[in-house]
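Need the bound structure for zinc ion, inputs here:
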Amino acid sequence: MTTDWKHQIKRLTDKGASYADVRYYPREKEDALFMWNGNFLNFNRSELSGFGVRVLVDGAWGFAASSNLGDVTATFDRAFENAVSAAKRVGRPIRLADKELLSGRFDSPCEVDPFEVPLAEQVAFMKELDGYLNQPGVEQRRVQLSTVNKTIRYYDSEGAEIEKHIIDIFPSIHVSAFDSEGVQQGRKYLPPRLGPTRGWETMDRDHWKAEAERIVDEMKTMLSAPKCPEGRMSVILMPDMMFLQVHETIGHPLELDRILGYELSFAGGSFVRLEDFGQLQYGSKKLNARADATLINSPGSFGYDDDGVKAQDQMLIKEGILVGALTSRQMVTEANDKAGREIFKSSGGSCRACAFNRVPIERMTNINVDPGEDGTLEDIIRNTEQGVILSGEKSWSIGSNREQFHFSTDIGWLVEDGVKKHIVKNCAYSGMTLDFYRSLTAVGDASTWEVQYVDNCGKGVPGQVMQLGHGVPVCRFDHVKVGE
Ligand SMILES: [Zn+2]
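Answer from helper R.:
Posting the output first, comments after.
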């Protein structure tokens, strides 16, 4: 059965809607495999199909979704009726910022679709990874693999027609054991961007074997390592920690819906105010951060967002000054109106829904920090008097407006007088977001820059879990409070 989506959209605009769009997911497949201590513990497979309709009537949104293609006309009508009901209560009519009218197609780069690889072969690969981890001294081993394959077709009343094919693969390995004080010490590996594609072809045995051996060695060393020193010192964040710092204290606070007060769940506020754009000193002059949805091969690159706006590469923080945010068509007009000036020229293309039955909201694309001019990791270490190199996010706690944070990491290495010393355990650091970024004193060059993938960013009510990326270099911050 073919559905005439454009006809349905026109039916709603003929009835008086000022705007309507539909996202149709003909197919969305997700697998999640979990192996624990060599046991195949869990396997979840979901296959969904459905469509979600968004419509604006008299300045109010209506939304409805269904997985029944026999229910298309009724679902479009329900979205319209929901908007009519909402319009009676809406205080501030919604206006969408203008956009360039686009039609197009996006395919995420992939050579071998993981869903074409027999499940038995995937499990055998996981078993092999578990074998690399199964060494004396390791008490718990986890091997996880999740894969996604979805097609999304988008149409709107302005004439856009967009088709997206997204394939993602998120593998990870993890080992842990208890030290003599009964504290669990763990080490994990989630691959960063390994090349121009991200299908099953990236599951290279030699690569995984080397990484597995490394994390086992590091974890075992931690069992008898001294504790991380406490006090004020430099912290050198490796990309597998820096990405989370950026995620929680640049990405989330710069989502425009949060700044406007719409997203107060899950530490959902933001300390950023509309008057801050163009003048707030967010960090030192060495800080250049951007939202880059055009980055090759990342879950945060998707071609077109769910407003039908093309992927963009936009500065968020330029030489330390706040200049941009993560925006949708709806929020930019409201922000400009409330500020009484044009802060945002148009949508930055950051409006995404995680499924057909969720409404699009501001989500991170790839929130990156540009490489700097302070050399390699070795150069940065050589220029550090007293500090600790930190790697692997372990736990995090964030102020409700993202104004402060406390993170602990899997592992650390002491740095004294420009020399990398031994491993230290139980590492933690904390700070005030702006003070911390203003103390950024070294940004590694392109040799230190990695794209880390995130597959579990949560936001929204009802909840939406989103995938994205962070391209980040090694960074050093000075006078940071280190200690549990
Ligand atoms: Zn998040």
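Comments: The mean pLDDT is 96. Residues 209 and 402 are 38 Å apart (CA to CA).
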